[in-house]
TrEMBL record:
GO cellular component, one term: plasma membrane
Cofactor(s) named in the record: Zn(2+)
Origin organism lineage: Eukaryota, Metazoa, Chordata, Craniata, Vertebrata
Protein name, per record: Leucyl-cystinyl aminopeptidase
Native species: Athene cunicularia (Burrowing owl)
PANTHER family in the cross-refs: LEUCYL-CYSTINYL AMINOPEPTIDASE, PROTEASE M1 ZINC METALLOPROTEASE
Amino acid sequence: MEPFPSDRIQLPRNMIENSMFEEEPDVVDLAKEPCLHPLDPDEVEYEPRSSRLLVRGLGENEMDDDEEDYESSAKLLGMSFMNRSSGLRNNMSVYRQNPNESCLVPSTRTMVVCTVILVIAVSLIMAIYLLPKCIFTKEGCYKKNYTMELIYPLATNGKLFPWSKIRLPPDVVPLHYDLVLQPNLTTLKFAGSVNIVVNVIQVTWKIVLHSSGLNIMKATITSAGGQQTKPAEFLEYPLHDQIAIMAPEALLVGQNYTVNIEYSSNLSDTYYGFYKISYKDENSEQRWFAATQFEPLAARSAFPCFDEPAFKATFLIKIKRDEKLSTLSNMPKKATTPVTNGIVQDEFFVSLKMSTYLVAFVVADLKNISRETNGSLVSIYAIPQHLNQVGYALNTAVKLLEFYQKYFLINYPLEKLDLVAIPDFQSGAMENWGLITFRETALLFDSNTSSARDKKLITAVIAHELAHQWFGNLVTMEWWNDLWLNEGFATFMEYVAMEEIFPELHSDEDFLNLIFKAMMKDSLNSSHPVSSAVQSSEQIEEMFDALSYIKGASLLLMLKHYLTKDVFQAGIEVYLHNHNYGSAQSDDLWDSMNEVTNGTLDVKKLMKTWIQHKGFPLVTIVRKRNVISLQQEKFLYHMEPENWTSDTSYLWHIPLTYITSNCNFTHCTSAYLLDQKSAVIELPEEVEWIKFNVDMNGYYIVHYAEDWKTLIDLLKKNHTALSPKDRANLINNIFSLAGLGKESLEKAFELIDYVNKESSTSPLTQALFQLSHIYSLLEKKGEQQLAVRVMHRIEHLLGDKIDQQHWTDDGTLSERELRSMLLAFACTHDMRNCRTTANEMFKKWMKSNGTMSLPSDVMKAIFIAGAKSSDGWEFLLKMYSSSVSEAEKSKMIEALSTTEDVRKLIWLMQNSLEGEVIRAQELSHIVSTVSQSLTGHLLAWDFVKENWEKLTRKFHLGSYTIQNIITLSTSQFATKTHLLEVKSFFEAKSEESSQLRCVKEAIDTIQLNIQWMERNLAKLQELL
Ligand SMILES: [Zn+2]
């Protein structure tokens, strides 16, 4: 998927499934907690804790009911001694962890109590293991193997639900699905029937699978021969989105059974599952469009299924539709047959073996253009009025598909590949196998209104999604903890492919800027290892973040440079061949690489230090003549005492690269693997300067200690001695070090003094980012005069560059992109004559009633200037409603969000949430723009607070959109009052909300802003 823009070590699956007490917070495992102490009952502080295991999804205030449920279930099962809360209540076992984590000497009485409990516990456990592998329930004795199933939650009908884990049991696996759906775009409901062929791995009486929000009418089980179809009881446990089909007789090992489930549901009004979209056709009449978005956990809301990525199966899909509409699914259409008056059924070919999250279908009025390449038909689909904007996507998709087939040495395995523009879509795109869905702005290119930047975005998103057809679809991560294997790889391949096929787009510059942003997140305490254990839906949703995507990709970039391009590519080929149509973990990738390096390099050992740790290293360089001393430590803002320890677990194996004044070309790049805390490199001769992390191909920051001055002088005298990426890297590193307090802000400002001679996009972008970030924080803190002085500094550095820009679409793509950025910045901040020129053009455009063609690259700057007046804003909104170009609309909505009129800003955010005039897909973009301005930043946060419930209903908790809305609406705060307010707000919400990683990131960021101000405010007064 392409978004828009528990740090414990993952247990192998079999360990999780067989871990008796895993995940139950109220269960005490005596063997694992040696420091739990018997206490006198009087000393016990009873703290009720909710048990996710035994309740039916109720709130905290319903705890008493939950406890009763728990106790009755537990008593029934004879296991009440295992529950901490009920145990405390009954004074049967009284334990509390010593806060100092040291063991106290227990009294004789408590020793006796403890011993008795231990004896009972051990006897019971032994009885369970040694006796007949049988569990006594109301129904009698079942022959079972899972001791962990002793405690069951309750199903919606009050019966015991036979499974307590979030993950599905491994005793039954799906092989094939026959899915028949009948969506009704008038009633906005759908009916469904699914036959699932399952294979039994271990004898069982139940089939547990996922279902969410489905109204199940009937379930049957048919045995392998197919003659005996028997009705089956089904139980539902909504807290885990699970249902259990109870077999009338034992399901035997090695046998196949077919489960049939009949159900119905409403088309969703969120962006997940099988959802509906309303849009206006070319005659301005309302039409409905139905599409799917299943990743990560929403296939279960369209059909009952084994909704975990490792449960791969084949799918035969049939969709009944209005004969005037069309349908698409992963596979080509096999047949269309009449059903009743005006209704026909489309049947698609059986799919390849794949994960449920990759299943997709669309029902709508669509038009397409197609082209065949290497035996596959590539088509771009859109609603009819957008058909003239699909040409660029088709050419691009064909070129990229051809590139990937050669690069991976595996053909794209399907006969067709459809790319569909969806009129309302939360993320950028979704890689469903054979049916990739896109947000319209990420697929449609309009030659009159799409800018150079838009072209790059479309190319990048197509490149990303096509790479997923191999990374993700052919080889899938086994579980969501390794999401980076999908997303990091697709992001990495996106840039590899673009550099190769579209070098004129200079996509590596964008990648560099994204890496800087990912490092910013990764330097906070709230960060997480790229591969992190996840269980809950919020945790899974939160994996779709900059770390899985960008850090994952930049680690692969670093590895590619270390191994060399050819070895790396050979390793990928081995990985894809070894695991095709299967699932993989991070280690499988390293093993494949090691097969290629053949023992010369241990890729697994190296990469584990990067994948299993959060954060990244800071390498400090001290140069004395030709001797370079190196030292690594963790780069972390908000150093807290425990983070200062020289814990060896924070030792990275860093493939360092460097160039020197004696030879600064790429072919002169030297390498050194720093796998110790410190090391010394001896150069063959003395050098004038040395620059590490060549082209920022490594994921670390370098501090040059006493050598910054040399590099500052080099940039002043001859900045082109270093590559543009190296220059951007130095700017980023010195400002990061100034934020950490390791280097002075004065030196950082001194380093960027050379920028008025700079003409490359990436160093200019980085310098502008750093300075405008400081400006923004000062402005919001009420330091207006100082903010104005920062703006003067920006003008001093970039003023000439802004004056040199033409208001046209001429030049290379890189020049055009730089122009868009500089003029939009100048018009936003009323710098130079930007607004004068832009206003003249806006007035002409208004006079022509929007028919005059504006240069696409400067269109946003013109709209920003125009939106400053009330008339201009109203006109822009009118044009927004009637425009058929999503590229144009996107620039309009951004300009509309820059107004200083408070009422208009509130109106924009509210209307976008409602999704009528402005689509809800734009909301995070609007909130982001509003949050940046002085007028808007408090409004944006108020909006989030007031609409929190609506927001989390529309966009799931933890989703990329919610992550963005939270972090962006709070990113400008730099006071303790705001810190307290943000903390209290989320603490007062659900536990799931306050535990979100993005909430922690928001809090860390505010603290960092406060710290930055305390450290640098006085210095800024002197400097500017
Ligand atoms: Zn992706």
